Amino acid sequence: MRLFKNKKAMDYSAFLVIIVAIVVVFLVIQLYAKLDVFKMRIGEQEVVLMNAYQEGDKLMLFVDQSAKYSVYKALGDIAFNAGFIFQNEPCGVIGPLPLKDITGRYPFWFKDNKKCYQDIDFYQIFEHYLNFNLDFYFSKYPSYIPRDNYEFVVSKNEILGIPVKPISLPLIAPADKKEHYGEVMSVVLKEFDAIGIGIYVVRPSFRVDADALLDDFSSLPSKVDALLECVHSSGIDECVKEISTQEVEWLFEKIPDTETYVFDVKMNNLDNPFDSDPVVIRFALENPLNFYFVPNF
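Below the sequence we write its predicted structure tokens.
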């Protein structure tokens, strides 16, 4: 068996190989000269994206931890301000008081025969202080986190925070490679108002497993209503005993030479992992024995 060779065909194939090689070399030179892509290391762009992922994880962890601190700080703020916004107490404040068993700052809940606590919404005031404390912690983060950006869902055993607006993290190119992304960066700056080669968007919601006991807080005004009616027929000691429980403990003391009583109401069933002391809501009642009420017939 003999193998026949076509010399012209072989010469043509060699010619094509040479032409292709010349074209490839020409394209490589053009790419190197115009785009300079070969100065970028393999995986460089992927590293930029991974850095953004890591920054997003750090931000979500920060939001989660800030939420845990903010929830319990908000409950402490409610107690310290007796359910009011600080320095917006409708009937004023008494204290601090150097008494034997009770010390502190006491907003009036009853003064001049007026119930100053009737408009308190403990759920609304909790959201106010929770948002306030979140914004305080967010201001400490190196990247910008939008303020007043959460809607809250408060249930018996958990508090959920859902962001209204997402957070955009810029994809930052290496400093020595920014010149290769000039056109891309100009588009990103125009479209997203961010300096980088793109943006990575995160929505850092949070969930805090905690019983804020807002129902117990919300029951306090009705307890004071009962107390003001009770003192007309019984002594204040007996009336306080009727409304005090092991979980929500009522302590009081009369300020000497006045008709004002100050109360410490301890939320003994509120477990605060960041503070061993119980949450105590403090308020004052001026001359409760002279409260005028119209009995229901």
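DSSP finds six helices and eleven strands in the chain.
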